[in-house]
Amino acid sequence: MTVPLRHMSVILQSIGGSVMTFKAVVRESRRSTRVRLQVRIEALGMSEPLTCGGETLVVNLHGALILSAVALRVGMKICIHVLLTDKRAIADVVYVDPEQPRHCGINLEKPENIWGLPSPPDDWHEGDAERAL
Predict the structure, then answer these.
(1) Most CB atoms closer than 10 Å: which of 2, 28, 101, 132?
(2) Cα separation of 52 and 43, whole Å?
(3) For 100-122, what is each residue's pLDDT tens digit?
(4) 50-72 pLDDT, tens per residue?
(5) What is the pTM of this model?
């Protein structure tokens, strides 16, 4: 079965004047809307020694697809630090692309907008997401 996708592009201007562009990708079977967004991150190992930089490729309320400076492993517990917002969250590495092992899917322990989207998609209600888990 093919799930239809709907795209929406938005350009935001931050308080500091820099411009951030993101594209929302809606897939009906997702817990929250995915948004293409590149922000710099730092990953810190919780279950093993690790410190590396990286960036997000796609984000949502529950996690992200990231590009890390080093390959991560499925099952690793990491702390994600979003440099733009200075917010941190604990996450599990749930996917590693076998063709591009530095592309990893992460699942946040607590659904939240740590990414810095000032006007997140309508289904990014943090209180509702916690109650749904």
Answers:
(1) 101
(2) 5
(3) 999 999 999 999 999 998 888 88
(4) 999 999 999 999 999 999 999 99
(5) 0.74
Cα 112 from Cα 5, distance rounded (Å): 23
Q: Give the integer Cα–Cα distance in Å for 70 and 21.
A: 26
**Residues whose CB falls within 8 Å of the CB of residue 39, separated by 6 or more in sequence, listed in order:** 55, 56, 59, 82, 83, 84, 115, 116
Residue 50 tokens read as 């690790």
Distance CA 121, CA 98 (A): 30
Nearest-10 Cα torsion for 111, 82, 12, 35: -50
For the chain, domains (ranges, CATH) are 36-112+126-130 (2.40.10.220)
Rounded to an integer, what distance in angstroms lies between the CA atom of residue 64 and that of residue 10? 19
| CB of 40 closer than 8 Å to CB of 84 | yes
